[in-house]
Amino acid sequence: MKPANIDIRSEAIRAALSAIAEANGGYLNPLHVVEAARDSSHVLHNEFDWKDEDAAEKYRIAQAGALIRRVKFTVIRSQSEQKEVRMVTARAFQSRESARGSSGGYESVAEIMSDAEKREELLNQVLRELNSYRKRYAELAALSEVWAAIDEAIDLYGSAPSRQVEAEQASLGRAS
Fold this sequence. Notes:
7 helices; 176 residues; alpha+beta; two-stranded antiparallel ribbon; 2 domains
C-alpha cells in the first residue's frame, strides 16, 4: 500500500496540471507547465531542476540518449528460392532495464541478441511495454487486431522463453 503522502502529492500534481490545461484551452503544453512552475510557491516548482548548470548537463545527457536512439542499421536478407530481397531497418542500440544507470546504458542489438539472458530480458521488456500500450489504449476498438497480436505474442513469448529462442532461430533460418 502506498503511503498517504505519495497519493496526496500525486493528486496535487494532477490538479495543478489540470488547472494549467484548463487555462490553455484544454491543452497541456510542457512550455506552459514550466512557466507555471517557475514560481517557487507553485506545487510543481520542486519537480524541476532550476540550477541552470545542472539542468544543462541533464539536457545534454538526454540529447545524447536521443542521438543513440536515432542510430539505425539495415539488415538485407535475400531469399533466392523466392527471388526476394527484404530490407529491415532497426535501432542499432537498445537499453535493457538492468543495464541502465551510472554504469550502463545502451548496448548494440547484435550484442544483446547474441546473449540468451540479455535477449530474454529485452524481449520481455518489449512485451511489457506493448502490454502497457494495450492497456492504455484498450478502448480504441479500431486497434483490436493489434491488441490481439500483442496478447498472442505475450502468450507465446512471455510465458515460454525457450520457445522464443526457437522461434527466432527458425525465423533466421528461413530468412537467410
